[in-house]
């Protein structure tokens, strides 16, 4: 066996163990008895400790040093690129810092949950200060002289820079603010009313997942408080939730998670358990969930078909197909990112991106964070935050130390905009197909051009190769302005 | 930290990883998508490989050598005894032999399943020959000069010897053969008829599990093709199955698995993730499942209460409480061990025990196994085996290399007989309590005297301490002869 073969065998075993950790996480959110929480945290910690030891195993460094990269094919070179990057990054963070961060964020998460329940940012601020301090330390170690925030961002979106994102987002923000203002001056669409049976919602969810190409023989659909997808390859599971008053919550959570899951299911089987065997970045992942959910799932054509499905499942909806389409795409004032619509969602994200960069750079002190949040919110959304749980305390991310994560949501939307443009060129009669409930060409195009590649190309590369043009925010803006201009008769 | 503390910290992490492997097994049998089977086998193998490396880690040997056993308390000495035994055993089996066995039994299992479907022992014989050869090799390595079969038995029942078991079983066999003959000359009890709703069976199963002291906040009940229990401590899960024509299958599978699970749930929390933190042997484990299922669950007193529960759940049963009790305890000719009753079950096991000892000693050739099985079966049961799937091919164990496992089933019954005798002395009004559906005193006595100790004492010790007398087959025989003598008016 060559050094490369040894390295890959070791990586595959590590990858298999990482999948096991994923199954454990799924179990925790769906089936674990509630009395098992404390014991489970020790089980998870034991497995994470094994994974950490493997990721920093000195043999990886020896194998990497012994490999002649020039002798490898494209796939081998991509594997080497991922492994080198991960190993280098893991080696830069001192073990003590990693352990301190794990302990601190576990504590910070508990404090955040209490502070949110009490609407009391001051109770969270001290521990968040400590988290920011350690994340700056970690970022500096990872950056090795480069930009600290970029080094953190690289965990979620390899190769991206804050400058790049800032340019994109800077172009998005004023046009999104203008679009939402114009929309909110128009009459609100009539909402869906009535109550919707739980089991019938789950049956519809399963049908929708399969319609969007999810292979149920290699996955399953369960309920969870916060929907997620988990796993790669032949065991990719999705979760959704039901609310008797709001079937759209179940429907669009399901389609969103199906986008994530379809990506993981579609990756070339030869990449299983290797760094190429999972979605290449959070941004590209989100591009799949978002194009499934929004550009496809909330299109007039698809909602026309969905309207028929819902009538068959639930009887008269009190809305004709056009009113149903308007209801699905309703834009309203709201505080909460995760409940937001296509137009306002990115404004929520951009706010967090700007604030977290300022926290990491030191331009913004944690003590001033709530005021900065509220000021920016009022500027972009035109009304005031009423309480911390509707504002600065609404998201879990910062308590968990996830700095650099937020912008990948909007990058995913930007990429989805690009892919939608290219898809519509590749499949000219897409609307006619979707109106008949046929998503085969759309999901097939995404599978062929994006999903199957896994980690073979860099995130930007895979989008650019699929689209045939360099990714930018322009297609997303054009799509949103056209769609909502038409819907709200702007 | 002392060497002992280091060793225990390492063991706890290993124990936590072993629990993760258990969760993975539970998932595989209950929730895993069927298309994930191949990928899962790689995930399981990766985790097993980590566990194997830890169990044979040279540091364990160094810690063991550095520990002053005399300075440890009773618990510490018990930990040391378990760890030393496991480490010594693991070190005696060459890595290549362990790997060959894993590969071979995986293949043998597939061949066995096909041969059973085809009722063709000749198709299974060649690979079974190879399995026996490797198990003899493994047994010889483990025995280090001692008895080969005892060395294999020790995996499932530490400290037991074939001679000991043979003495017990030799006393059981003639009286069980005589008892079954006498019973089968009497009229058969009227069987339960009708069909029983699946969801109502599961609701009853949950109620029964809780009645027998299963803590549902630290466990869950699901369905599986072959019922099992899994896990230790605060996450112990049970499974059952339903058959619309035979609710007793669901009821007694559930109570049986509840016995296993209650044991694991009851072990002292301080032992979690250590060798003391799980049931001490297969025999003691089976003693708990069997006393829950049989001596308690199939008693006249308890079935009287159960009769009322079933009437409430399913309406008129067509049997009065006494006929219901007779139906629950019906003894009939059958081929299959797992479908057998209290009287005949041990005869099935004793047959396998004698044959597998002869296979391992070389006194019986695999080519002669089917004939030997059929001859013994006819001698003990008085009728002929009709086909291999009802005879020598019915059990999975030998294909999986589990030689030494079978006798623990009957040892468990023997121990259950002893515990039942002691329990009845300790709780004189047990029948009155059970007739009211109150199992609290019975399960509390077992928890206090057996279950909470986990691996603190040796298997025989824990039974002897609970009973106050040395375990023997006599109480089981007395119990069976009295119960069935009365039931069948012998």
Automatic annotation (TrEMBL), chains A, B:
How is the cofactor bound, in the record's words?
A: Binds 1 zinc ion per subunit.
The record, for Gene3D superfamilies, names: 1.10.1370.30
Quote one Gene Ontology molecular function term. Answer: metallocarboxypeptidase activity
Q: Which CDD domains match?
A: M32_Taq
Q: Could you confirm whether the keyword Metal-binding appears in this record?
A: yes
Q: Which cofactor does it need?
A: Zn(2+)
GO terms for biological process, alphabetical? proteolysis
**Where Zn(2+) is bound, by residue?**
256, 260, 286
Instruction: Tell me which UniProt keywords the record has, alphabetically.
Output: Carboxypeptidase, Hydrolase, Metal-binding, Metalloprotease, Protease, Zinc
Is Metal-binding a UniProt keyword of this protein? yes
* Family annotation (Pfam families): Peptidase_M32
Catalytic residues (positions): 257 (proton donor/acceptor)
Q: Which reaction does it catalyse?
A: Release of a C-terminal amino acid with broad specificity, except for -Pro
In short, the EC number is 3.4.17.19
- Coiled coil start-end: none
Leading EC class: hydrolase
Protein task? Broad specificity carboxypetidase that releases amino acids sequentially from the C-terminus, including neutral, aromatic, polar and basic residues.
Identify its protein family: Belongs to the peptidase M32 family.
Name of protein: Metal-dependent carboxypeptidase
Species: Alloyangia pacifica
